[in-house]
Every structure is written in structure tokens, then in C-alpha cells.
């Protein structure tokens, strides 16, 4: 302090001498917290690690093993509370030197263990920024820990595993001055960035004969893969799943090997790439290990832990079967054993594996039943498995659940909720399996079971469904879930088009039963249904379509009740299509049911026409979305085979009064616009060489194809609706169609020649393919091809000229209409001008006496000019037709009524004198302004 005061006084003296430049006082002595003794924790004294490295590597001291051990022990004691990040490079250089010498001299083993034990503590930072500055060094240091697994010492390997486990899980208290330990979050992030996971997986091949260390490594991998997707990806990168799964059933008295291996595989499945995992397990060794482990746990395990492990193995097997359909489940016998375990309770078996096996009603055994059914459904994608499923009577076992739910249960059996869940799961599985095993389906009398269950679903019996499972969605408290899956199963069976099954369902009265279900169970308004109800109705309509298609007798069985039912669904409000509940599917299945179940049978067709079904189809065609047009047009086209249908089509009128022909022309134009066909603004042909070709077809060009393949020109017929529109016009005719505009007539000229243009397009494609393949036809064929091409092109030119004539005629008509409109406007204006001129003349005659006299004279001259005898006034018998002294220009009698007030004031004396001269009766009235209201002469 005295030194500070002396320095301050000297500065003041200098400032007094030098006023022009004052100086700032400086304090040269800094007092730290260490000087005051207020720091907490122990102090880490620095050690020169370079001297330790020199001691280990110098030629003169490399044989001094005792000094080496002493120096390493001293270093370990000094860094007992952690290593600073700045010393990690030198530290791991020392560790690698010791690791290289431990084979020849075991004295280095203990120093390595001491250093590794200290590495289990978080690394120390002097500054908060050390985590960023030394990040790469820390990553490489953690990787070096994994590389030390090459040391052939169980103690060292065990310590490495303990170090890594503590490093990522434990946060001890490290009270050091001026140093702060890194966080656990930082440690785990560094582990993810490093390649320690890959190294540990690779090290498993070194630990085949050391079970304790192998379990430690698996424990570390289990921890690393639990919550880190990066670690899982690293493990999968070095085929960690295959390495671990291929050694599942190695000898292990403790049972930890199987548990930890399965847990690692589960973590890889949850956090890693499932496809990569499945591909690594897709081999005979892994599948065999999964099979042995599952069978062992199922037959020998009795604890809750064993049951969980058994189910986990089955889930992993299911993943492999789903991702790799060609996995060797059949070759290893795994599929046959799974079928046995899935059916042994419903179908009696004498196999030794299930002789003493019994599944209880606890949760894990219940889940096992569902998992076994699920994996067999997944395995059914492989056609070689279906034989095994058939031999194992899988369908018979699953059909044991297709029955009415009983209210009473016996002790030891499944509860109502469990039975319902298994029932729905079995029916959902049968929807996939039955189309593959049709013979077994018929053997089990599947149609009879399903129709009986359907009858129970719509019957009056009460049933309080739980609806807790995934398959029971929307069916809580009702039989909806059972009915929904029953119809799904029927739908999957009839969609195979197997005639034996279709006939079996028909013989058992399925058609009338399904129509009765629609007429009784679904009688409320369609907008009040939920998604499940809409789906069930769509399924029933689809089933009826499959049953009645291509069979006249079944269409007759469909009959009048079926037509009434379809008519009810065709009245569906089009606004409901966007509700998201599936009304668009319901409407499509209704149209499809009309097409398959009604069209083709004259009895049902006539009743359908009587119920105005054609009008309903055309109404839908007018307002429904474009993706439904194709189905409706196809149904109408087949319906037009009945001669009575044409009159209905021609009599139909839309909401705006449009006709069917106009609507079909609009659909044609919309289709060509979507295809990119070249047309002008009036819809006329622009390219006479390719009058029908769209932009997509033109861009593809000519592609030579074998004779068995369909060319672009032919495929175009089925890819759009133009062929159906053309066919409908062929039924209706191309002339005398009502409600067509000029644009419609222009379009109709193209529709009428559609077949000719399409034939020309096909020939053009043939010519192009021949040119592409450098094939020259013989002269007669070439001349014939050229003649056909010219004829088609000339026909296109004629159609184009006809269209231009129609367009010109329309333009001329528009010009005439415009002239007539303007003439009418001019006539209206002429009448208005005449009325204004008459009124102006009237005002002039009533306000100006001279003008009135002039008008009177003109009138008399005009009258005289109209006489046949020019001197009629000098005749003897001439009689005056007018009244004397009457100054008006109108032809009037004795009484004149004037209703006019246009002249506000009469100031002309001559007019007043003229009015006075006229003999006016006493009852005449005149205002003070000179306006007459009534005048009698």
C-alpha cells in the first residue's frame, strides 16, 4: 500500500510540473482471490507431461520401468480429480505408449487402469469457451478410449467400459480452483460425434471367449443406443445388428446376454433405420438365432420378464418379415413353428413343443396371441408360406373366433373384452389370408359363418361391445366393429371372382340378406352417418356388384328391392362428397352397383327407367367431379343398349335447361383441353394431320413396340372418355339433337368422325414405326398406306372446312343480330325525337298565335290538297266541316278539353285579343296567368 501511495505522489508532482499533459494514474499491483485465500476447493498444480513422454520414449530412459511406473503413478495422483482439456493430447499419447508396451511388460497395466479410472470423470475447463475450442480434441480422445480395447487385458477392457459408463451417466463433485467440469450433456454429445460406438461393436469379435467383458460392452452399447439416433446409425454402419443377433444364444448362465442383445436390437429398431436393421438380420444365422431364442423363451420361460423378452423377439422377427419378404423363415423352420404356436390352442396338436404349453389370460400371453397372428399375416406375402399355413390349419383356428359374442365366460377363459379384441384381430387377418387360402375357406364353411355373424350383427340381441382395440374403432357399445370386419372379410373374398365362392354365397341367400341389411339397418339420412357407417354401406354395395356381375340369374334375384335401394343411394346430396367421411366412395359404389347389378337384365332395367334412374345418372354427370365421369358414362353407355333408354336421355334437361347432347359436348371439350389437343378458340381443328393427338402423346413420339404391346394410339382410347362420348352419340344420332349451340355443332363434327380420325392416327403410328425400324413395305402395301393416309387427311380437311363454314355462318348471324339490335335502338331514339319535336311544336302553337295561324293554314292547305275536286268550296252543296273562329289544329268537335300548364304567363296582347274574340260560355275557366283548364266552344 505504501508503494501505491508513493507512486501516486510522484505522479501528482509530475502533473504539477507538466500542466499541459495530465497523466492517468496506474495500479501495477493486482490482488487476486488466490492471494486473499477466498477460493474454494483444492488447487491443481501443473505437471509437465512432455517430460513424462520424454521419460517414456527417450533412448536413455526407455528401459527404466520403475521410474516410468513412479512417474505415471504420480501423474495419476496429481490428476485424481480430472484431466484438463488442454492436456488431453499429451495424456492420450502417454496412454498409447503404455498400451503398446503392456504386451511385453505387464507393469504398465496398473498405470493404465489408474489413468482410465480418472478419465471416467468429466474433463476440466479453464474457460467456458473450452467446450468449443477443444471440441475436436475431446472427440478424438473419446475415440482413443475405444481403440484401447485392443489391449489383451480383461481388467483394462472392463475399466474402459466402466469409464465410458461413468463418463456419460455420473456427474461427481469436482471442487477445483479455477477449473470447471464439463456437463453431462456435453459428454454425451461428444460420444455421439466420436466413433466409439463403431469401435465397441467391432471389438465384440475380440471378446468371444471373455463373457464378462462382452456383457460390459453390451451394457455400454445398450446405454448408447437407448436415446441416441446417431449412435444407432454408427452401430448399424458396422453391421452391429448382425454381429449381435448372430450370437444371441451363446452360453450365458446369467441370462444377461440375451436380454441386453434384444434390448440393443429394440433400440436400433426404434431409433435407427428399420430397413437397414432388417437387411442385416436377413440371413440364416440371425433368423435361426431368433427362432431358437423365441422357442426357448416360450417353452422354458415362466416369469413376467421372460414373457416380455419373448414378445420382444417376436416383434423383431415381425419387422424382419415385413421389411424382407424373402427372409429365410421357411428354410429355418421358423414359419412352421410360428404356425404351430398360433394354432395349438384352437386346433389340437401332438407336437412335443406344445404338449405341456398353455397360454394364460395375462397381458403378455394375450399380446403373444395377437403377435403370432400378425407375423403369420406378414409372412403370407411369401407364396411358399401359404402351404405351411394351410397344413397348420390356420384358417380353422381363426374362424373359431368368427361367432356371436357370448355374454357368459367360464373361469380361466378370455374375458369379454379380450375375446372381442382377438375376434376383430382374427377377422382383420382373415381378410388378408382368405383370398390366399380359398380351399381352406370353403372347407371351414366360411360363407356360412360370415352370414350367420352378419345376421347376429343386425339382430335384436344386445351386446355391449368394448371397442378398446385398434380394430374396434367406432364400435364401442354396439356391434358395429363386428359388422364392419365381417363385411370387409366378405369383400376380400368376393373380390377374388372365384365362381365357387360366389355361387355358394348366392345359394345361401347373400343377395337378399345384404339388400335387407341396407334397407333395415341403414334407413336414416345419409348425412347423419359416420365414417364407419359409410364404409359398411360401400362394402355391401361392392359385394352386391361382385355377386351380380356377369350372371343374369343373380341380377334377377337383385330385383325390384335392389333397384329401389340403388335409387335411394343415387339421390345422395353432391355436397356431401367433400365431407371427408367417404360419401364419394359410397356414390361410386352405388353407380358401380347400378352398372353390375341392374344393367343387362331387362326386368331390372325397365324398372330402373321407370324410377327415372337415367335422369339421376345424368344429374350426377352434370354436377359430380370429373373423376366420376368415366364410371357414369360407362354405365349410361351399357344402359343405352336398351332402346327405351335413348328417349330418356333425349328428354333429360339439366338445372339450367341444358340437354344431354350439350353436356356430352362439354365433357368432350374438357377432356381434350386436359389432354392438350390443338384446337382454336371456337374448338375447330388446327392440325389436320393429327386431329385427335394430345400433347402428352405427341411428346412421347413414335416408340417401336412388340406386337403384344398396346401402342399409344390404342391406349389413348381407354385412357380418356372420348370413346364413350362417341359411342353415346352413335346411340343418340348426330342430327336433330336439341339444345346444341354453334360451338357444340363444331365439336360434334369432330365427334362424328372420331373413329375415322383414330384409324388414321393408328396408320400414322404404323408408318412411323416402320420408318423408325428402317422397314420399307412392299409397293402395293405402301400405295395402300399412302391412299389411306390421304383419305384420312382429306376427311380432316373437309371437317375443318365444315367447321369454318359453321363459324362463318355464326359470325354472319351475329352481325345481322347486331344490326337488328342497333336498328331497334335507332327506332327507339327516332320515336323519342319525334315525341320531343311534337311537344316542341305543341308548345309553340299554344304560346305563339302567329305560329298557330301558320299551322292552321298548313292544315287547311293539306286538307284541300287531299280533295278530289279542287273547287269544292264553290259548290252549291258545300258544308263547312270545322267550327267557325276555332283556332286549333286538331280535329275536334264542339267540346275541347285542354290539360296543359306549360305556359306560366301570357304576356302577348295579340293572344289575349284572340282569346277574347272567341265565344266562350260562362262555365269556362281561366286562371290569372292565362292557363286554361277546361274550355267549351
Automatic annotation (TrEMBL):
Pfam families: CFA69_ARM_rpt (PF21049). Residues 47-766 form the Cilia- and flagella-associated protein 69 ARM repeats domain. SUPFAM superfamilies: ARM repeat (SSF48371). One of its GO terms (biological process) is positive regulation of flagellated sperm motility. Coiled coil: none annotated. GO terms for cellular component: non-motile cilium; sperm midpiece. This is Cilia- and flagella-associated protein 69 ARM repeats domain-containing protein.
